[in-house]
């Protein structure tokens, strides 16, 4: 029986057509036996990792990767059907939200290489807790063929536990990885990051169009895929330097006299904390404003997760914390209890946020806008840029 949950909130009458589309893609893939499939999963960083792997492998091979900002349920079949018999690699992002999602993706395409970024609370409304997230995502590693490879994050305890679930050769990456890629001399500004890659006696410098030190996880993973695929360190560095930054995922945006960190595509506890860290790292001697929306789909963990985020923000030097909506107010209430020294503002909608920021933001202020995609906080980014605040619905494709 078809697992309809995998189609999320899309219209019911469309779901049978998505099933047919997926079956066509599944059948077509059988005609491409020489194409190696790379599947990427994890709680955060999947799309950046996908883009980085693509950029690295593109230096030597014919590679196909998905378009950004489309639900995996539709994106995977679409990407399969873009693949040609002469392509070498097909990269797919396996983003799971419900129990059984990974089984569905694996039924469409069984990968030769599996990459796992992190395991953290996300979509716990459906998956229960971090253990449920692990149990769903580990299925990818368990499904790899004997001649496959697992590319695992040695810095993440839950990901490291996946090693016991597979017999394939494991390529470890991250700071704790032995004999793997190393990264040093990291530096960043609002436009670019720079770091040095090391592998054995080889060295190469990368100009990474990505901000946020935590996003080096994607660089580590992509570089490791490059090594196992036979690329030189110079080829890997060149590829990383051309990585496409996914839209609304911690992008630096100019908005008249201020700078924005647009991280409005989605939000989870770990991702929100890392975004706050990046705001602090990049805003020395600048006014710091954090605009926080609700972290959706956390279920019974929601209140605690928002309260913990607020408690952490309460100990920072952020000047203004602006929260949008009733659930996000938990963040500001918790920050207040943690003796937050900045100013707290809770608003009902994005229009109020736009006008408030325009009043309080000083020249060269750095404003982080972070929330789940259902909150459509990208409206704030567009409004501050003087653009239309109409946005496209993630599920129905209509302007709202």
Automatic annotation (TrEMBL):
SUPFAM superfamilies: MurD-like peptide ligases, catalytic domain, MurD-like peptide ligases, peptide-binding domain
Alphabetic keyword roster: ATP-binding, Ligase, Nucleotide-binding
InterPro entries associated with the record: Mur-like_cat_sf, Mur_ligase_C, Mur_ligase_C_dom_sf, Mur_ligase_cen, MurCDEF_CellWall_CoF430Synth
Classification via Pfam families: Mur_ligase_C, Mur_ligase_M
Entry's Gene Ontology molecular function annotations: acid-amino acid ligase activity; ATP binding
UniProt keyword Ligase, yes or no: yes
Coiled coil: none
Record-annotated Mur ligase central domain positions: 40-225
Domain Mur ligase C-terminal: residue ranges: 248-373
Name of this chain's protein: UDP-N-acetylmuramoyl-tripeptide--D-alanyl-D-alanine ligase
Species this protein is from: Candidatus Curtissbacteria bacterium RIFCSPHIGHO2_01_FULL_41_13
